């Protein structure tokens, strides 16, 4: 999430979702594919079409999306859902990440 122009924004591979005037604006860019935008409009038909260009557009939603709608928004915009870990999974992951690297692996210093 980032703060852009005084509005919260979640950015995906094909667009973004912004909090705006008590609702949300969903911007979609299909990078030169009008068919992809047409398909996205069909999937986002529950929202109000605000701007319709050849291969991009904006739809608005004046409420929080339902879980099914949120899933469609993530799919269309290209936002991966965050993995939720239990306390046990989080502890196991921390333990595995704190181990020294195994012999034969690439040293982390090469990535700095």
Question: Quick summary of this structure?
Answer:
The chain is an alpha+beta fold and 112 residues long. The two termini are 25 Å apart.
Question: What does the model show?
Answer:
The protein is α+β, with helices and mostly antiparallel strands. It has a single domain, classed as Aspartate Aminotransferase, domain 1 (Alpha-Beta Complex). The chain has helices at 34-43, 67-77, 87-98; strands at 2-4, 7-11, 15-20, 23-29, 48-52, 56-61. A 6-stranded antiparallel beta sheet has the order 1-2-3-4-6-5, with helices on one face. A hairpin with a 3-residue loop joins strand 2 (7-11) and strand 3 (15-20). It is elongated and about 55 Å long.
What is the number of domains?
1
Let me know the largest β-sheet: 6 strands, antiparallel
Structural class: alpha+beta
Please give the radius of gyration in angstroms: 19 Å
Number of helices: 3
Q: What proportion of the residues form beta strands (DSSP E)?
A: 25-35%
Q: Indicate the CATH topology.
A: Aspartate Aminotransferase, domain 1
One letter per element, helices H and strands E, the order comes to: EEEEHEEHH
Overall pLDDT confidence: 85
Poorly predicted sequence stretches spanning 5 or more consecutive residues: none
How many strands? 6
Q: Tell me the strand order in the biggest sheet.
A: 1-2-3-4-6-5
Question: What's the CATH class, please?
Answer: Alpha Beta
Helicity level, as a percent range? 25-40%
Overall CATH architecture: Alpha-Beta Complex
Overall geometry comes to elongated
State the end-to-end distance.
25 Å
């Amino acid at each position: 999430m980032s703060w852009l122009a005084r509005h919260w924004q979640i950015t995906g591979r094909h667009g973004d979702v912004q909090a705006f005037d008590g609702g949300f604006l969903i911007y979609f860019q299909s990078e030169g594919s009008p068919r992809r935008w047409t398909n996205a409009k069909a999937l986002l038909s529950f929202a109000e079409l605000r701007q319709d260009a050849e291969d991009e557009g904006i739809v608005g939603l004046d409420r929080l999306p339902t879980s099914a709608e949120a899933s469609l928004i993530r799919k269309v915009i290209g936002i991966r859902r965050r993995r939720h870990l239990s306390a046990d999974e989080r502890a196991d992951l921390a333990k595995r990440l704190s181990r020294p690297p195994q012999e034969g692996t690439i040293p982390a210093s090469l990535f700095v």
